[in-house]
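For the sake of transparency, this paper describes our internal protein records without simplification. The tokens are whole numbers drawn from a learned vocabulary of local backbone shapes. One such record is reproduced below, unchanged from the form in which we store it.

. . .
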Amino acid sequence: MRALTLLVVINLVCYLDRYILASIIPKLKAEFLAGDPDANGKAGLLTSAFLVSYMLMAPLFGWFADRYSRWVVIGISVALWSVASSASGLATTFVMLLMTRVFLGVGEAGYGPAAPTIISDLFPMEKRGAVLAWFFMAIPVGSALGYGFGGLIDAHLGWRWAFYLVGPPGLLLASLCFFMPEPRRASMHGLALGHKPGAADYAKLLKIPSLITNILAQTAMTFAIGGLSVWAPTYIHEARGIPLAEADLKFSIILVVAGLSSTLLGGWLGDRLQPRFPGSYFLVSGTGMLIGFPATLAMLYAPFPAAWGCIFVAMFFLFLNIGPSNTAIANVTPPSMRATAYAANILVIHALGDVLSPWLIGWIKDHGSWNLSFITVSVVMLLAGVIWLGSTKALVRDTAALADLERAGASGVR
């Protein structure tokens, strides 16, 4: 429980740190991009630059995490992104700010692949969905805290202090990691895998159909969630006339309530339905996206305050898949290669997902309209739902195949 608590707190701070930027985009545009006709597209690049370094470095850190102490990898990475985030407040030009976001991504790349594998090794398959949901609930809750914290500190001390203040807590959490014991890399049945995986082993990951379709669906989901999370407060402020402080605050409240309840519900539902519906993790994920699709469209046309309700529904069902989809990765991937599988997932979903969406949505707005930007997001949500629902049978087969393999290995060890 101590390990889970530390990882959850780090994940909360990680996403708070990441989404401070989204809460102050109008201020950054005014300071660094005033008068630029492509200001929205360039502002989107601040998130894209972070994600590019994050996704490119994740496979390297995943390789280290499969071979060396994961807590050391996590501690170093948390320290790095804490320093990089504080440095964002020192930026005097747009390029300097862009570079600090790049180093933020390098730091987070060590944490993302390693942390879920520790949780997967500490908890059995029948509890894994609910436990991982607690870990991943940090995505909506931490993001919401980022919006609220960034807006609050900006209003009282200026946007630079929002970045300064997140560094010290991150460094404290990083120091705690170096005192944590490394858990045995065990399978869900208690089998410790003795060999270190090689190139041939990793090639086998490409032969797991549900892993591939899961990554594709998560890519579409990440595109949607990346676009909404970066641009929703700015859209609400600029297109709908809501004051920025109010937009940040209310969106953060919606995000924390809808995201927290949805993420935990999704993980619980996946575990609860799994004995009766073996493909439940994809069933829950896909259904949520199909319901979120029309809610996102309704957000664009409903008047405020009714539009807040549409935003709540859209965010609730968008986050329903977080626990189940990430649990599915653990349940079809051999324990010795889980960090690499999560790293590969990070690489693909960000390269084709939210690396593109903040820039693309900003570009569409610069050359079209806000409505067209968010219609693009909603269509991609629909695509994710279709992929997950169409892959439930593959998930059933792949989960059973890994369980059989590990049972046979455990019998051999005995």
Summary: The chain has a mean pLDDT of 84.
